[in-house]
C-alpha cells in the first residue's frame, strides 16, 4: 500500500531591515545585497527550489520591500507570492504559517533568508528527522570555551561546552503542531529566539541534525567577504576584458538618457530602446568579456517588446550572465564623446545607477566625458558616441 508524498512547505524569513550588515557603500538591506553577483535572498530561495521534495516556498518580506522583491524576478510554480512580515522575527514566521495553512502542508521548514548556502543534504537531514521527531534543526558543536558573565565584565562560571550547540536553519516541524505552538506563543509576554525554542516551550521533541559551518548567517559587513570567498572557493579565477562602442544620432526631443540618467537637452537620441548610448556600450563590453556576443543578439531591435525599454534592463542582463558563470565584475570604464549636453555634473548619478543595477560598489565604475573639438559628426552635434571597457573575473576553464 503506497502513501501519498508529503506536502512540505518552506518559509523563508526575510522581513528584517538588515541594518547591521549595511555600510556606507551598501545601504541595501542585506537580503537584497548581491553575493557573487546574485542577491542573498534569491540564493536562499533557489536552494529550496533545488530540492525536489519541497512543495511550496513562501517568502516573508518587509512591508516596504515589495519592489525590491519583485526586482529579483524569480519564477517557479512552487514559489508563492511573498507575505508581509510582522514587527519581529517570531511575528513574521507566524504570518508565514498563516499564509500556508490553506495548503494543509504535512511539514514546514523555516529558513533564515540570510543563510544562502544551505545545501540539499542539510534539508534532507531535517526532513528525515521529522519521521520520528516533532521538530528538527541543524546544529554545530561549540569549539570555544564558553564563559558566563551576567554583568558582561566578570566571569561567573565556565559552561560545559560538550552539552552546548549552535543552532542553524532550516528548522523543520510537523505543520499542525508548529502552527498551534506559534499561535499560543503569540499570546504570552515573551520573545522567543528561534522556532525550536517555541517547540521546546510547547513540549515538542526536537532532534538535532548535523550542521555545516558554511551554512553561516550573514549578519555583519565582514560576513559578505566570507560569503564571496565561499562562492569562489578554491577555483582559480582569471580576468577577462571586453570593450564596447556605440553611437546614436540626435532627433527632435527634449532630453537624452545617458548612463541611466535623464538629462534635459534640445534633442533626444534616436534608437529602438531609450537609446542610452553609454549603457549600450557598457553592456556590449560586459557581454564581450564573457564571449556572449553583443546587445543585439540578446535584445534584437526587431523585437517590439524592447521598444522604448530602459537600457538598465540590458545592463542587468549582462551582469546576471557574469554571475551565472560564477564570476564578478571587477571594474567598468566609460567614455562619452559629445559637445552637448554637459555631462560632468551628472557623472555621480550615472555611477550610482550603474553600481546599483549591477550590485557593485560605485568606486568600481568610472565615467568620463570629452568632446571631439568640434570635429566630425559629434563636433557638429549630430549625435553622441560612447566607448566602454569591462574587466571581470570568472572561474578558469581548466
TrEMBL record:
Site (Positions MEP for the nucleophilic attack): 161, 217
Role this protein plays: Bifunctional enzyme that catalyzes the formation of 4-diphosphocytidyl-2-C-methyl-D-erythritol from CTP and 2-C-methyl-D-erythritol 4-phosphate (MEP) (IspD), and catalyzes the conversion of 4-diphosphocytidyl-2-C-methyl-D-erythritol 2-phosphate (CDP-ME2P) to 2-C-methyl-D-erythritol 2,4-cyclodiphosphate (ME-CPP) with a corresponding release of cytidine 5-monophosphate (CMP) (IspF).
Marked site (Transition state stabilizer) residue numbers: 20, 30, 272, 371
Region 2-C-methyl-D-erythritol 2,4-cyclodiphosphate synthase: start-end pairs: 240-398
NCBIfam families: ispD (TIGR00453), ispF (TIGR00151), PRK09382.1 (NF006899)
GO molecular function: 2-C-methyl-D-erythritol 2,4-cyclodiphosphate synthase activity; 2-C-methyl-D-erythritol 4-phosphate cytidylyltransferase activity; metal ion binding
Family matches, as SUPFAM superfamilies: IpsF-like, Nucleotide-diphospho-sugar transferases
Cofactor: a divalent metal cation
Name assigned to this protein: Bifunctional enzyme IspD/IspF
Pathway: Isoprenoid biosynthesis; isopentenyl diphosphate biosynthesis via DXP pathway; isopentenyl diphosphate from 1-deoxy-D-xylulose 5-phosphate: step 4/6; Isoprenoid biosynthesis; isopentenyl diphosphate biosynthesis via DXP pathway; isopentenyl diphosphate from 1-deoxy-D-xylulose 5-phosphate: step 2/6
Residues annotated as domain 2-C-methyl-D-erythritol 2,4-cyclodiphosphate synthase: 240-392
InterPro entries (UniProt xref): IspD, IspD/F, IspD/TarI, MECDP_synthase, MECDP_synthase_CS, MECDP_synthase_sf, Nucleotide-diphossugar_trans
Pfam families associated with the record: IspD, YgbB
Keywords carried by this UniProt record: Isoprene biosynthesis, Lyase, Metal-binding, Multifunctional enzyme, Nucleotidyltransferase, Transferase
Record: residues binding a divalent metal cation: 246, 248, 280
Gene3D superfamilies documented for this protein: 2-C-methyl-D-erythritol 2,4-cyclodiphosphate synthase, Spore Coat Polysaccharide Biosynthesis Protein SpsA, Chain A
Gene: ispDF
Species in which this protein is naturally found: Devosia riboflavina
Protein residues bound to 4-CDP-2-C-methyl-D-erythritol 2-phosphate: 246-248, 272-273, 294-296, 370-373, 377, 380
Region (2-C-methyl-D-erythritol 4-phosphate cytidylyltransferase): 1-239
Source superkingdom: Bacteria
EC number: 2.7.7.60, 4.6.1.12
Amino acid at each position: 500500500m503506497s502513501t501519498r508524498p508529503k506536502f512540505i512547505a518552506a518559509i523563508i524569513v526575510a522581513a528584517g531591515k538588515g541594518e547591521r550588515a549595511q555600510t556606507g557603500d551598501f545601504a541595501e538591506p542585506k537580503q537584497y545585497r548581491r553575493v557573487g553577483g546574485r542577491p542573498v535572498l534569491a540564493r536562499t530561495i533557489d536552494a529550496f527550489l533545488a530540492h525536489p521534495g519541497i512543495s511550496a516556498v513562501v517568502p516573508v518580506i518587509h512591508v516596504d520591500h515589495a519592489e525590491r522583491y519583485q526586482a529579483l524576478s524569480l519564477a517557479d510554480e512552487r514559489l508563492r507570492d511573498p507575505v508581509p512580515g510582522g514587527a519581529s522575527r517570531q511575528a513574521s514566521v507566524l504570518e508565514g504559517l498563516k499564509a500556508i495553512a490553506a495548503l494543509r502542508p504535512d511539514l514546514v521548514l523555516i529558513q533564515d533568508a540570510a543563510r544562502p548556502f544551505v545545501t540539499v543534504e542539510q534539508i534532507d537531514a531535517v526532513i528525515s528527522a521529522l519521521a520520528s521527531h516533532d521538530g528538527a534543526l541543524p546544529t554545530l558543536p561549540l569549539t570555544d570555551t564558553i564563559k558566563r558573565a551576567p554583568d558582561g565584565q566578570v566571569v561567573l562560571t565556565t559552561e560545559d561546552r560538550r552539552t552546548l550547540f549552535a543552532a542553524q536553519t532550516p528548522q523543520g516541524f510537523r505543520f499542525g503542531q508548529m502552527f498551534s505552538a506559534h499561535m499560543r506563543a503569540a499570546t504570552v509576554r515573551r520573545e522567543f529566539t528561534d522556532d525550536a525554542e517555541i517547540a521546546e516551550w510547547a513540549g515538542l521533541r526536537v532532534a538535532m541534525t548535523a550542521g555545516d559551518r558554511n551554512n553561516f548567517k550573514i549578519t555583519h559587513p565582514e560576513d559578505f567577504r566570507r560569503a564571496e570567498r565561499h562562492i569562489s572557493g578554491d577555483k582559480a579565477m582569471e580576468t577577462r576584458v571586453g570593450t564596447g562602442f556605440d553611437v546614436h544620432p540626435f532627433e527632435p526631443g527634449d532630453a537624452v538618457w545617458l548612463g541611466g540618467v535623464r538629462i534635459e537637452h534640445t534633442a533626444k537620441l534616436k534608437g529602438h530602446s531609450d537609446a542610452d548610448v553609454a549603457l549600450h556600450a557598457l553592456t556590449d563590453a560586459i557581454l564581450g568579456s564573457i564571449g556572449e556576443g553583443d546587445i543585439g543578439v540578446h535584445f534584437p531591435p526587431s523585437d517590439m517588446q524592447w521598444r522604448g525599454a530602459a537600457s538598465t534592463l540590458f545592463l542587468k542582463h549582462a551582469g546576471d550572465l557574469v554571475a551565472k558563470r560564477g564570476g564578478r565584475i571587477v571594474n567598468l570604464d566609460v567614455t562619452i564623446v559629445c559637445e552637448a549636453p554637459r555631462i560632468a555634473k551628472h557623472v555621480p548619478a550615472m555611477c550610482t545607477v550603474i553600481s546599483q543595477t549591477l550590485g557593485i560598489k560605485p568606486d568600481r565604475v568610472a565615467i568620463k566625458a570629452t568632446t571631439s573639438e568640434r570635429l566630425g559628426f559629434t563636433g557638429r552635434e549630430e549625435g553622441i558616441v560612447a566607448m566602454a571597457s569591462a574587466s571581470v573575473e570568472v572561474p578558469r576553464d581548466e
